[in-house]
Design brief:
Largest sheet: 2 strands, antiparallel
Number of domains: 1
Shape: globular
Strand order of the largest sheet: 1-2
Structural class: mainly alpha
CATH class: Mainly Alpha
Helix content: over 70%
Length: 257
């Protein structure tokens, strides 16, 4: 029952996207009907396809860059011992505590001066700014859970810091990497606020594009449901692909024993 309650909204949205406008509002709702792909055809032939591509590029690029920059930083904070270690860690966390509206005006003014308004690179920069703190804090926890004896054994065998990190530490932290990557992707993919403020038409993302189907003439429920289904699809596929690592990362977060 819990699984059914969890997936029910997605299944309901999916069946709405396969119905005609008339069939959507039939009472009682019909669970058995002839599916139609008309809503998807209407969505994919308009500007939504470009917005979907913008979301994909921005989210994937942000996830990759966040991991490339944040994972080594997290490893450094987890293993290094210096006086301001804790201060730096909490300063990084503080960047996630402020509400997005607090940064909207400064980013907008800076982007306007640099010509980054309505550009995908502009979205990647701002997503990277806020995802880095998530990556650093999550991966720091995973690294701290790894036994130091494994790294010390690699040092004794002649491996350097870089070799130990790439060949010993990273493979052992695969569950943490998968979990962190999913959260980074979700935060970037689901962003609505910054995309609404910093884009116009060319760099508009999919969540904002769906709002365009809600006009004063009426709400186009077929396109809304089809667009919503397409927005959720990459997240479902990505989560399913790394489900094994995700489960281990959320339950353990490190090596047992």
């Amino acid at each position: 029952m819990l699984i059914l309650a969890t997936i029910f909204p997605f299944l309901w949205l999916l069946q709405m996207s396969l119905k005609t406008e008339v069939a959507m509002f039939e009472m009682p709702p019909k669970l058995v009907f002839v599916p139609s792909l008309r809503n998807y055809a209407d969505v994919l032939t308009g500007d939504f396809l470009r917005s979907f591509r913008n979301s994909t590029v921005a989210s994937v690029a942000t996830t990759i860059l966040s991991l490339l920059v944040g994972v080594p930083a997290a490893y450094g904070l987890a293993r290094a011992r210096f006086r301001s270690n804790g201060l730096i860690s909490y300063w990084v966390l503080g960047t996630r505590m402020a509400p997005p509206i607090a940064f909207a005006i400064p980013f907008f003014l800076a982007y306007r001066q640099m010509g980054l308004i309505d550009t995908v690179p502009g979205l990647i920069i701002i997503y990277l700014t806020f995802n880095l703190s998530l990556v650093i804090w999550m991966m720091r926890t995973f690294f701290e859970g790894l036994p130091r004896s494994l790294e010390e054994a690699a040092y004794i065998d002649g491996a350097g810091i870089t070799q130990t990190f790439l060949r010993v530490t990273l493979p052992l932290s695969a569950p943490g990497l998968a979990t962190t990557a999913i959260f980074c992707f979700l935060l970037s993919w689901n962003d609505f606020f910054y995309s609404l403020v910093l884009t116009r038409t060319q760099a508009m993302t999919a969540p904002v594009a769906v709002v365009n189907f809600m006009a004063y003439q009426g709400w186009e429920w077929g396109k809304i449901s089809a667009g919503g289904t397409l927005i959720m699809l990459p997240v479902v596929i990505f989560s399913f692909a790394v489900r094994k690592y995700l489960i281990h990362g959320l339950t353990a977060g490190a090596v047992k024993g």
